[in-house]
């Protein structure tokens, strides 16, 4: 065998070995990439399941508190009011304690209203009985007053949503409206809710004084509401955009993918 042939065979063997090594390394890197991707997907699913479980627990605790307020404190206040009414009927207008009795009855009336309001905010019964649109109409009606006008623009119907997603959207609207009233001094708030292609879109506009998003997020107390909104949306791969700045009204855009929203389990 000639030297040239030996060199050619040796070169061919080395070339094949090099090709094999390259293929092996590429295959190994591909498998590593697949494993990293699978691990990332598993971690993301775990995070979403954990967030869903957290919000499930929060809603369950809200129900328990609302039930306690309604059944225990509300009942006790109602009994106290009845007792006071009986006492007041035994007093004449000329009797000095009668004025104090009227003041006490008014205080009880105000307390009962507050208990009912807190109970309703914790668990909106309209949402459970009549659905998201009716509960938002009620929220808008309760939030509107002489100082602020809250308006809801919505379709006649929405695509089917799980109760968990309806609660999520309701809580987001509740948070955004509350922030606009308490912190921005808004005189007008517009809520837009509508389906678009494969998602539900929620827009909330106000004419308040606005805010610095970075500054608010650095404040643990004020930024908690915004982080809660982002956390709720992350469960369904939703998204929120804050078009805000100091000195002007706020525009907030929320997107909830319908495909992922259907996978969120019912809260029982």
From TrEMBL:
Q: What is its EC number?
A: 2.7.13.3
Question: What is the reaction catalyzed?
Answer: ATP + protein L-histidine = ADP + protein N-phospho-L-histidine
**Which top class of enzyme applies to this chain?**
transferase
The alphabetized UniProt keywords are:
ATP-binding, Kinase, Membrane, Nucleotide-binding, Phosphoprotein, Transferase, Transmembrane, Transmembrane helix, Two-component regulatory system
Task: Report the transmembrane regions from the record.
Answer: 6-28
Q: Which GO terms describe its cellular component?
A: membrane
Calcium as UniProt keyword: no
Q: What InterPro entries does its record include?
A: HATPase_C_sf, HATPase_dom, His_kinase_dom, Sensor_HK_TwoCompSys, Sig_transdc_His_kin_sub3_dim/P
> Which stretches make up the Histidine kinase domain?
64-260
Superkingdom classification of source = Bacteria
What GO terms are given for molecular function?
A: ATP binding; phosphorelay sensor kinase activity; protein dimerization activity
Spell out the SMART domains in the cross-references: HATPase_c
- Pfam families hit by this protein: HATPase_c (PF02518), HisKA_3 (PF07730)
Keyword Cell membrane among UniProt keywords: no
PROSITE patterns in alphabetical order: HIS_KIN
Can you name this protein? Answer: histidine kinase
